[in-house]
Amino acid sequence: MDKPTLPATNVSLNLLEYQIMEQNFSITQEFYRTLIIAVGILLNCTVVLVVSSSRQLRYPRHIFWVAISFFECLFLLEYALELTVVLYRDQQLCQILVLLYPMDYSILLQCLLLAAIDRYVSIIRYEWYKKTVTIQMVMTIISVMAILTFGIFTSPFWMGYRSIYACTLNLSNLNLVLSWDVVLGLICVILHVLIFVESRAVIRQYLPSYRKPSVTVRFINSSVRPSNFNPVTGMDALSTERVTFINPEIPSTTQNATQPLNDNAQLSSIADHQVNLNRQQAASKVNRLEVQAAFSLSVNILPFWLCTFPLSCFAMATYWCTRLGGNCDTFLFIWTYMWDIFMLHSIYNPLMYMISCHDFRRALCHIFRKLANKFIMQIQKN
């Protein structure tokens, strides 16, 4: 059976159908988008490869970054596809673009939301998080979310309400998708504010534990010479001193004017103090790392969400302008440039992750050294 073909000229279109191939890009826009796509794919693929090949990064929080970088790559490939469709007027590629256009962006937003939830839970319920959340669980949740999003967003096509052969974007459907994205963005921004508040609370909780009360130690030379006085050197073979400990918070310590210095007792006291300090540090080290990871996530992702709101609001304003029959040429002209600016998040996200994550930088340097050693050994063999 031959595949049906529905040319764009034979499809009934209304004002809410946006023709993709009618776009026109200047040479500057072509160069700019090509550069963003190339650099963004390089950075995001680097994140995926380093995290997947390094054992020390196989934790849930890094798996979320792998998912984010993966969908960033799909996002960039979609815009490479759009650039190809507009330049070469390819009908078949345009049909694929229509099917995928709103989907990958929404999946990316949901991955960012799941990453924020992961960081928030790791702070407020760390013990439960450590025992329950695994890499397999994270991958399962992301996979189910992506499949459900794909099925829901493409349902108008496989249910017969829309056709991919028209090669148009329906502004009504796009408005619904962007409204959902705004809801996701609001939830995520609220979570980031809560993460910041909880992070400050945890930091303030741990800082006082390292501040110990001051203790004054006064050394007093003993007036009694021991029997092992050396007349040649004029010095004691073993000097005896008395020490006074004055603790302002414990009055009983100031009542004893002096007490003999006992090396064993002093060493035992110092050892006990060090053990207690090590226990406090061990108990808080992992949790403080989770706080640092959560704070880094907020720094990296929050600007992306702040850019999402004006873009989504602008798209919805374009929809209502078209729906009410207004003059929307200005909206359509500005729309292309807003997307050009918005595409920078595909470079910003992986770059900030590389800069802020010490474990990632260490794993990346390890891989570089390993490859360099192999290259040198290969040259020496030849």
Automatic annotation (TrEMBL):
InterPro entries: GPCR_Rhodpsn, GPCR_Rhodpsn_7TM. The chain crosses the membrane at residues 31-51, 63-81, 96-117, 138-158, 178-197, 294-320, 332-351. The keyword Ligase does not apply. Residues 43-353 form the G-protein coupled receptors family 1 profile domain. It comes from the Eukaryota. Belongs to the G-protein coupled receptor 1 family. It is a multi-pass membrane protein. Keywords: Cell membrane, G-protein coupled receptor, Glycoprotein, Membrane, Receptor, Transducer, Transmembrane, Transmembrane helix. Pfam families: 7tm_1. This is G-protein coupled receptors family 1 profile domain-containing protein. Signal peptide: none annotated. The keyword Lyase does not apply. It is found in: Cell membrane.
